[in-house]
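Practice problem: predict the structure.
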Amino acid sequence: MRRSLLVVAAVLVLGTAVAAQVTWTVTPSPVPTEQVIRMTLTNRSGSSITLPSTAPWSIRDLLGGLVYGPIGLTVLVPLPDQQAITYTWNQKDRTSAFLAPGAYEVWIGYFDAKFQNQTLKAPLQIDPDRITVSGQPAPGVTVKLLVSSPRAPQLPYVAGLALAIRPELPIGGNRFLALAPDALLVLSLTAGPPIFRDFQGSLDASGAATAALGIPSHAALKGITVHAAHVTLHASAPNGILSYSAPQAIQIQ
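Answer:
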C-alpha cells in the first residue's frame, strides 16, 4: 500500500489527440476536481499553423454541446513548426462555479498550412475525489481530514502530507499526485499516531473516511503550510492506485 505512493513513472502522455503530427494534449486526465488542467497544442507538421484567437479551445460534453468557452481576442496567432502553446484552466465556468465531475472533451480549432479549418478533440475525465480540513489548524490542535472518493466505496485509501505540491509524485498510469516526495510525505506514510491518525484505512459505503492530524505544540509551526492529498487503491488499477485527490493546503495559524 505504501509502496504504491512512491512508485516512479517515466512518461507523461495523457489524453492526446493527433492530426497530421499536430497534437492536442490534456493533462492530467483523469483529473481531480478543482485542480488546474494544462492543455498543450504542439505543431510538428512541417509547416506553420494558425490559431483563430488567443483562446481557441472549449470544453464540450460527449455529444459536442458547449459546456465552457473562454473569452479571447479574435486575432490570428501563428504557431510555427516545432513549437507548442499551452493553456491552463482552473475548472471554473463563467459564474466561477467548478465544473461537475464527469466525462468531457476538450476541443481546439486551428488553420493548417493550406488555411483549412481543423479541429482536434482530447478526452477529459473530472473525478470527484477530494480531501478537506475540518477544524482550525494550530499548534496543539487536532484537525480532521475528511477523505471523499464517491466512486471508490469500501476500498482502501492512503492519505499523505507534504511541504509542497511540486515536483508532483508519479503514481503510475501516466498520473501525478500533487505532493512533493519530501521527508514529510515519507513521515506521514510511516509514522502513524498520535500525529498521523487513520492516514490509511478503508472508505465506508459512501466512499468517505476521516483521518486526523495532531499538530505538535510548537509555536515555531505557526505560519507553516502543508498539503494533504489521498489515493484509493484497487489491485486492477495502474500500480494499484485507482483514483487520487487534488491537494488541500493546511496553514497552521
